[in-house]
Amino acid sequence: MSVPLTLLGLLEREPSYGYDLKRDYDEYFGRGKQLPFGQVYATLGRLARDGRVEPGEAEPGDGPDRKRYAITSLGRAEVDLWLAEPVEPEPHLQTVLFSKVTLALMLGKPAEAYLDRQRAAHLVRMRDLTELKRTGPLVDVMLADHALFHLEADLRWIDLTSARLTELAAAVNNQKEQP
Amino acid sequence: MSTPVAAGGILIEARDVRKSFGQTPALRGASVAVGRGEILAIMGPSGSGKSTLLHCLAGIYAPDGGEVWFDGCRMDTLDEAARTKLRRTAFGFVFQFGQLVPELTAADNVAMPLLLNRVRRRTAYQTADTWLEKLGIGDKGGRRTGELSGGEAQRVAIARALALGPKLIFADEPTGSLDSLTGEKVMDLLVSLAREQDTTVVIVTHDARVAAYADRVVMVRDGLVSFDLGPESSAPKHAAKAAN
What we know:
The complex is a heterodimer.
Chain A: H1 3-13, E1 16-17, H2 18-30, H3 37-49, E2 53-55, E3 68-71, H4 73-84, H5 94-106, H6 111-135, H7 138-163, H8 165-177
Antiparallel strand pairs in A: 1-3, 2-3
Helix pairs in contact in A: 1-2, 1-3, 1-4, 1-5, 2-3, 5-6, 6-7
Chain B: E1 10-21, E2 24-35, E3 39-43, H1 50-57, E4 65-70, E5 73-74, H2 80-90, E6 91-95, H3 106-116, H4 121-134, H5 150-163, E7 168-172, H6 180-197, E8 200-204, H7 208-211, E9 216-221, E10 224-229, E11 237-238, H8 239-243
Parallel strand pairs in B: 3-8, 3-9, 6-7, 7-8
Antiparallel strand pairs in B: 1-2, 1-4, 4-5, 9-10, 10-11
Helix pairs in contact in B: 3-4, 3-5, 4-5, 5-6
């Protein structure tokens, strides 16, 4: 799970304070594991250093001064690239895929096309493993079987998610409108 | 959507095929081309139209619109008798259920399409024995297919489909009723023997592990071919992109 890219994706919606980013991250992607404030600000600092985000002027408030961060065109291009690129087809990648799909829906990007690219990457890997099974020794066959069953489970998730995209988009966007 | 095909040229092609059942559209302009000797998997969710597409390609259904071409000839305009003849002589079928006559022996079932095509009885049964042997069930020729296990019955079905030397085999969920290991053996045999005979295969499946045996995978969604994964490519071609 890439925290920097996910934060960048959240910033693509609108410029935000670190506090708001942490709240949204925890709500959408945390799944019970909160992102520490320290990590949010350290990540934003690195993203600013690398030209992916631009911090606004320090704004005085009740507590310490705070800055609103905005994504740059470089950051935006990086998010686009990340969303469009299939994840390496390995077992247990659902957290990354889940984040990509949720962000894509949030940003109105073509989640279905991303899922198709992932499906393609999975099928190519499954084809290679199947060929290995047809020609390799039994030990390789058993290892390939293990990978194939996990890839198949991912594919089922991809299929189900594809079928639920409209519903998911509504859920994500309704949630976003709530205060 | 134009589709990439193997180097040997196109054997069968659906062009903008539409088919409805009552008011319900099953295919809304599906296009796919299958190359000679190619093994193509058609995937898609339930109700997507994947089996309807196979049935239109095989001449079992006459499409409401669009065209189906086989071996350079237009097929959808043929009458039922001509389509039946084509199915009997040029196509083999492997379905999930119901294709074998359970009261007949394995050898009878394999020999039947040959006999229907006026092959001499002795030759038909010799050919049946040869194919049953190739499928690893040479000792089951005298058994009624109703008494065979699911995997054995499916091997008989493959033997029957291949015995006639068809140009094209249509397989609809060929491993759907089999356990994983048996399904794998059946797929392995189907693919190996089809490649050996240079027979084109079109497989409809919801099972990605079955599709992984194919050279190419297309996906049907909402009655359209929306995804085409060629033999080498790592990224699918999208109908929407192709249309733009």
